Amino acid sequence: MKLAKYLKPYKLFAILTPLAMCGEVIGDLLQPIFMSQIVDDGVLGKNMDIIIASGVLMILFLIIGGGCGIAASAFGGIASQSFARDLRVDAFKKVMGLSFQQTDKFTTGSLVTRLTTDITAVQQMVEFMLRGVVRDLLLFFGGIIMMLTLNVKFGLILVIALPIEIVIMIMILKKANPFFTIVAGKLDNVNSVVQENVTGARVVKAYVRESYEQERFDTANTELMQSNLRVATLTAILQPMLMIILNISVVAVIMIGGLQVEAQEMHVGEVMAAITYLTQVLHGVMMLSMMFQTAARAAASAKRINEILETEPVIVSGESTGQFSQRGAVSFKNVSFSYPGTIGRPVIENLSLDIKPGESIAILGATGSGKSSLVNLIPRFYDPTEGSVSVDGTDVKEFSLDELRRKVGIVLQKSELFSGSVKDNLIWGDKNASDEDIQNAASIAQADEFIQKMPDAYKNRIAEKGASLSGGQKQRLSIARAVLKKPEILILDDSTSALDLSTESKLRAQLDEQMDNTTLIIIAQRIASVKTCDRIAVLDHGRLCGCDTHENLLKSCSVYKDIYDSQVKTTGGEI
Questions:
Q1: Taking 60 as the threshold, does the pLDDT of residue 573 lie above it?
Q2: Per-residue model confidence (pLDDT) at position 322
Q3: Which of 209, 268, 345, 474 is in the most buried spot, having the most CB atoms within 10 Å?
């Protein structure tokens, strides 16, 4: 089992668990002997001393066995829970290191299932292996030995009953095992639907699609129920069939024992002990059948967990963390890029562009022209299909990912905030920032004013994903978070779309004044937002068709002129 290495740090507890379990099982195996003595020599022999002595021994071994059982539970719990914790940590680290294309391949719902339900299934299997398997095997073999010491003829019952139980168990579990993987997939679907509807609740309500989404969830949930029912139906057949064999075997012991007692070859207490041992043996088989079910479920889960752990990140960190003569320079050299798994024309095609340190440059173009795709290559959210991207004169592939992304502050189209206070969200930019630095960053982003109006100002709680804020407020907090980072390169990916022109103008003025040494890359739809930038790069179907000042582009770039004219007509005057 590839995941067994996560148990090695806790091997002491893993060893102590079955040892303690041996003590509990020995206590259980001795109880029928004491009971036999009480019945045969004490009750039937009318000897109170034997009854008392045997009773005291029963209680003593019961206490010892119980103590060993408690210790086994504690040791097994420590080992299995610690195993699950370490496995979950490594799996989460691996997920955090996956590229966007890899997380899209797994889907969010599936990743959540693998890090929760699947790891829990494997953890339960580890605990069962440490405790349950040892207990059941010892009861199984110990019960057979003790039963045969009472009367060899009882072996005939075991020879008939055990093969029947084992054959039934194998046949049913063989049919049930494939369904465990199917159930896991159906659970992924349910989690995906829930995740989409929780995060997109406003859109669902806005389009009055509650009924449709309820039907979609009901479909996924029904499929999960049906898959679980198939497994439950097969396993439900197993227990009653094993119980029937157990009860028939008990009747057979009573019949054979009765004949032996009548022939004065056995005592009544020994027959009672034989029934108890038979029950322990066959019950051990039943518990082992449950172990095989747990193992089958855990095997399916382990396979899904290993798929994550064995997935190597597409974006591999470099090693360079040194000092560079340039700070904030960006260069694209003959860059082409296509999203993984797509065919046809590249999103970006043979593009070359040099951005100077401290320069403010805007990127304009029609929807789908490759603007966001281009800037996503700078922090290596994706790597170019062809060509190279350099920061500070060094290919981004040579940087360690941490060092590269420390240089870059990026505010995405969709503002992502997290549950917590305003300050908690802002210090993502710099966890050691002072209150003065936080307020200054918020002022630059034009966020301080509305933050101060909140009941608890910077300590005010934000709902999950910023649900308690407007779109413009979320954008300004996201910009403040990036500003607080004090990056060499600040990328605003259409992140002011919810701001009015006046607020956006004040924001740009503050950025120019307070962060004049920072390279500023702005993706925007409105020319009015970026006409004062040092240069404006115009993209058309992934190609750079112009890069100059606003005035020069109006004269030299027909694509830019068309965008300008369309916005003049829309606004009814000069932009």
A1: no
A2: 59
A3: 474
